[in-house]
């Protein structure tokens, strides 16, 4: 993974977070977090009572009020600090990205010649030439040539990657450097809308919006806060009626202990940290919603080639059919591949070289190249003399030959199936109405796939492999990799159909893709992960982009999403449970203050009524920073079903939430009681 994997925290991030904690005290900012806003309002009221005791008639309790004020202030600051700390890493990353965004000179093609212009002048549709050693001036698509490009500025990966015209490896990103050769690039973004611009906005959190889940939880927390506010406000007159005197700072303390400050203070930090974990993993999530959706995924659609297998499908053998000779198969395979820039196409020419075979490229001259398309599953060339040469999936070529009235050699099927049963891909080679033979394309399943799919199954996620390959190859690879289901001979629109079918059953679907033809399916899926190496269309349709272009990462992304949801659930449970213990400390204390005979209520045997209130408040404050590491790192995660997870978490965090504060408040009280 990327060399830009950062340390969790640096001194700078902490210092800036401390500063930001104070800046965030601005009530306009605080209002976005109703729970903490109420605490801040209480802090201000108690501050006034401390500073102007004469005015409020609070001279007797100035010391206690000052203590309450300070504890409340720190409660708010701690919550701000949690959020600022979570934002810190993104900000630091944004700064380093901005450095890679300086203005550079671009060689723009104008008419027939090349003119130097500043990169900021480039617009969508402009064409530029980038040579060895130069920086690519903007996002675009290679339209001519092949070059190796150092993308470490965005991916942190130092090994250069090959970018070439045509196919799924044609997109380039502004700010990356060409390390060898020369390419012509068509610019695909206007200034300010580039990938790096979007990435900066993302990691900076500039466009961070609350997710539906967060909004729902926030509504719940706000409702609880309002309910407790009403309870506490009505308590005052009732107490007054009973001639029990309750001071305003005591009532505010009670309110702060009652409302869910722990989760209120940590909620946004949990969301930001979850996004950040995805980013540190070199995956860019376009929204927090995408990350959360990945935590709820039920079905995962996976490509065979390149996701489950290494994807470097290489021609390894020419196999004649119908009594033809190997040379003829090899020659026509080569002719059909002269201009085929796909890895499969190039591997055919490489195999020719390796086997020291010759063919005459001159026949292909002037011919019309037929590019490989996932819809036709064929590629080839229409020669000047009228002959049409094709190679492609066996069933596709067979149909093509049949429509021209050709006969199908009797050994075609058996020889094709033999390749497929070994997990290889057979390509048939034909000229007009005659099939000459097969090309054996070899590919291997990535190691460790079976274990990963086992984990997914434990999480209750169904995996479906979709491949354009034939059913036999698909079945072999599916079995080897251990996916739950597969769809063979699928065209791009079939992927959408599968996604829609699953969604119609109420399931959330994730998929990966890199080609332009994957774009509609990526957009349809609830979580669409596009490869950075892929086409611009795919990247725009998806809601996540993997900078390392490793499609199997979708599995880890789902794990991170689950962890985010779990962390939020666990800390909410903990927060609400730990408030319960505070009632036991603070409510008896309040009544004992008014009616000393109520001392019997002091079940926790705390020092004094005032020390009980302060201890509960101190615990309420310090639990926030104590839980920051958990909020940022996420709770420990093991693959298991959602129901089991829920039970486990309620047990650990619910019970923990009740027990921990009893112990904590008791210990704090031992110290506090030395003064009060
Ligand atoms: N360059 C090519 N020329 C001719 N036929 C090809 C070429 N590349 C692939 N094919 C054929 O087209 C089929 C579909 O290819 P496609 O890339 O759409 O899917 P795939 O790679 O097999 O599956 P996946 O969706 O898992 O990537 C392949 O199985 C193969 O038979
Ligand atoms: K609380
Ligand atoms: Mg493919």
Automatic annotation (TrEMBL):
Pfam family of the protein (one): E1-E2_ATPase
GO molecular function, one term: P-type potassium transmembrane transporter activity
Reactions the enzyme catalyzes: K(+)(out) + ATP + H2O = K(+)(in) + ADP + phosphate + H(+)
Residues binding ATP, per UniProt: 340, 344, 372-379, 391
Top enzyme class: translocase
EC assignment: 7.2.2.6
Transmembrane parts of this sequence: 35-56, 62-82, 215-238, 250-273, 580-598, 610-630, 650-675
Alphabetized PANTHER family for the sequence: POTASSIUM-TRANSPORTING ATPASE ATP-BINDING SUBUNIT
Positions of Mg(2+) binding: 514, 518
Organism field: Paenibacillus hemerocallicola
Main location: membrane
Entry function: Part of the high-affinity ATP-driven potassium transport (or Kdp) system, which catalyzes the hydrolysis of ATP coupled with the electrogenic transport of potassium into the cytoplasm. This subunit is responsible for energy coupling to the transport system and for the release of the potassium ions to the cytoplasm.
Protein name: Potassium-transporting ATPase ATP-binding subunit
Protein's UniProt keywords contain ATP-binding: yes
Location in the cell: Cell membrane; Membrane
InterPro entries the record matches: ATPase_P-typ_cyto_dom_N, ATPase_P-typ_P_site, ATPase_P-typ_TM_dom_sf, ATPase_P-typ_transduc_dom_A_sf, ATPase_P-type_domA, HAD-like_sf, HAD_sf, P-type_ATPase_bsu_IA
Membrane topology qualifier: Multi-pass membrane protein
Entry-linked HAMAP family: KdpB
Gene Ontology CC annotation, any one: plasma membrane
Residue intervals of the P-type ATPase A domain: 105-204
Family assignment from sequence similarity: Belongs to the cation transport ATPase (P-type) (TC 3.A.3) family. Type IA subfamily.
């Amino acid at each position: 993974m990327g060399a830009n994997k950062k340390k969790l925290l640096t001194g700078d991030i902490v210092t800036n977070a401390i500063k930001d904690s104070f800046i965030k005290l601005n009530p306009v900012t605080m209002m976005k977090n109703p729970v903490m806003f109420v605490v801040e309002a209480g802090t201000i009221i108690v501050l006034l009572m401390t500073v102007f005791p004469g005015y409020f008639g609070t001279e007797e309790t100035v010391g206690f009020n000052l203590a309450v004020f300070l504890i409340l202030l720190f409660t708010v600051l701690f919550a701000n600090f949690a959020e600022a700390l979570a934002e810190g890493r993104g900000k630091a990353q944004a700064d380093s990205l901005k450095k890679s965004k300086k203005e550079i000179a671009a060689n723009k093609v104008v008419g027939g010649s090349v003119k130097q212009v500043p990169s900021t002048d480039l617009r969508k549709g402009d064409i530029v030439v980038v040579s060895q050693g130069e920086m690519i001036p903007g996002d675009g698509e290679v339209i001519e040539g092949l070059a190796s490009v150092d993308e470490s500025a965005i991916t942190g990966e130092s090994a250069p990657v090959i970018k070439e015209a045509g196919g799924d490896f044609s997109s380039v990103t502004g700010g990356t450097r060409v390390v060898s050769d020369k390419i012509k690039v068509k610019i695909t973004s206007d200034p300010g809308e580039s990938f790096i611009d979007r990435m900066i906005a993302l990691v900076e959190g500039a466009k961070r919006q609350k997710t539906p889940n967060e909004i729902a939880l926030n509504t719940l927390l706000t409702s609880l806060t309002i309910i407790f506010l009403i309870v506490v406000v009505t308590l005052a007159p009732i107490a007054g009626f009973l001639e029990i005197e309750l001071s305003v700072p005591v009532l505010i303390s009670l309110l702060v202990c009652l409302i869910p400050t722990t989760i209120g203070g940590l909620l946004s930090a949990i969301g930001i940290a979850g996004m950040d974990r995805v980013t540190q993993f070199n995956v860019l999530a376009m929204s927090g919603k995408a990350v959360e959706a990945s935590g709820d995924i039920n079905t995962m659609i996976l490509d065979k080639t390149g996701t489950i297998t290494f994807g470097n499908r290489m021609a390894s053998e020419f196999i004649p059919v119908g009594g033809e000779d190997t040379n003829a198969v090899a020659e026509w395979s080569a002719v059909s591949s002269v201009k085929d820039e796909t890895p499969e196409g190039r591997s055919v020419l490489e195999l020719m070289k390796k086997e020291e075979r010759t063919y005459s490229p001159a026949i292909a001259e002037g011919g019309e190249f037929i590019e490989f398309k996932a819809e036709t599953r064929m590629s080839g060339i229409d020669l000047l003399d009228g002959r049409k040469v094709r190679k492609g999936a066996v069933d596709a070529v067979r149909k093509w030959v049949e429509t021209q009235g050709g006969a199908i050699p009797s050994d075609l099927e058996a020889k094709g199936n033999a390749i497929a049963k070994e997990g290889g891909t057979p390509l048939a080679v034909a000229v007009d109405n005659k099939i000459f033979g097969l090309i054996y394309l070899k590919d291997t399943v990535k190691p460790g796939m079976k274990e990963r799919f086992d984990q997914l199954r434990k999480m209750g996620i169904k995996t479906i492999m979709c491949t354009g390959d034939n059913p036999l190859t698909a079945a072999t690879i599916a079995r080897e990799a251990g996916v739950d289901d597969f769809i063979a001979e699928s065209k791009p629109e079939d992927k959408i159909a599968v996604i829609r079918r699953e969604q119609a059953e109420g399931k959330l679907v994730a998929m990966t893709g890199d080609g332009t033809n994957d774009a509609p399916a990526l957009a349809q899926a609830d979580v669409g992960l596009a490869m950075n190496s892929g086409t611009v269309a795919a990247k725009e349709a998806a809601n996540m982009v993997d900078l390392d272009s490793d499609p199997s990462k979708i599995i880890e992304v789902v794990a991170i999403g689950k962890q985010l949801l779990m962390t939020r659930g666990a800390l909410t449970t903990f927060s609400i449970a730990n408030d319960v213990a505070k009632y036991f400390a603070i409510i008896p204390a309040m009544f004992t203050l008014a009616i000393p005979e109520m001392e019997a209520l002091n079940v926790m045997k705390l020092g004094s009524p005032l020390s009980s209130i302060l201890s509960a408040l101190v615990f309420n404050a310090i639990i926030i920073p104590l839980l920051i590491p958990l909020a940022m790192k996420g709770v420990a995660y093991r693959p298991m079903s959602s129901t089991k997870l829920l039970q486990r978490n309620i047990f650990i965090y619910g019970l923990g939430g009740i027990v921990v504060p009893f112990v904590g408040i008791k210990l704090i009280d031992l110290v506090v009681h030395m003064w009060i």
